[in-house]
Amino acid sequence: MSINDIGPEPQCFDLESATLDNSHYRAVAWSGRYLQLTLMSIPVGEDVGLEAHPETDQFLRLDAGRIDDLSAVHGTDDAVNVDGAGLGHLLTYTGITILACIGYGAFFLVVGLFIRNPIIPAIVLYGWEWLNFLLPPLLKKISVIHYLHSLVPIPVSEGPFAVVAEPTPAWIAVPSLIMVTIVVLVIASLRIRHMEIRYGSD
């Protein structure tokens, strides 16, 4: 049985028969945007090699053999192994959420301190962030959402009309968000000091 990868188009075949008939070390049977079905024929005692991807979720089904830590194949039939990025992704998304709260919170604090009725500037800021996917690459960098998108482990689709921009590396994105937040908070604290009511000086 020969299985051809037809990209994201629907594909239907007997997975067990195709796997047992496969004599290639690696044969791609189907490719989607975030998922790929690969048939492998690995001799006993050899390893999975570059097919181990610790940064992503993997579902491994064995029709013959056994996997120990993705490093060696032994001899048990019809085994299933789910190897997920789990905790790493959870911690990454938690960190991104914290950075988002800090970044947006700082900006909305400043808007509230400097403008008596902050609803209009808040709507403008929200609109700027929401329309970020349409902006040219240089203008994208003047937004919080651009840096947050650069940090996600799995890229988020921005739609067919999005202007593609190179993601900012994490070692630049995280310090940039923190530095801008610190600057904004310093400005806010200076503004609050000038707003203090002094009861003792008359």
Describe the structure.
The chain has helices at residues 15-21, 86-114, 119-130, 137-140, 144-151, 170-195, and strands at 26-31, 36-40, 58-62, 66-68, 72-74, 79-83. With 202 residues, the protein is an alpha+beta fold. The protein has two domains: 15-85, no CATH class; 87-195, no CATH class. The strands form three sheets. The protein has a two-stranded antiparallel ribbon with strand order 1-2. A two-stranded antiparallel sheet has the order 3-6. Strand 4 (66-68) and strand 5 form a beta hairpin. Helix 2 runs antiparallel to helix 5 (144-151). The relative contact order is 0.09. Mean pLDDT is 78; it is low at 71-75 and 79-83.
Architecture blueprint of SSEs:
Blueprint: H1 15-21, E1 26-31, E2 36-40, E3 58-62, E4 66-68, E5 72-74, E6 79-83, H2 86-114, H3 119-130, H4 137-140, H5 144-151, H6 170-195
Antiparallel strand pairs: 1-2, 3-6, 4-5
Helix pairs in contact: 2-5, 2-6, 5-6
Q: What is the number of helical segments per DSSP (H or I, 4+ residues)?
A: 6
Radius of gyration based on Cα positions: 26 Å
The string of secondary-structure elements, in order, is HEEEEEEHHHHH
- Average of the residue pLDDT scores: 78
What characteristic shape results from the CA principal axes?
A: elongated
For the record, the count of structural domains works out to: 2
- Largest sheet properties: 2 strands, antiparallel
Instruction: Give the assembly state of these chains.
Output: single chain
The number of strands is 6
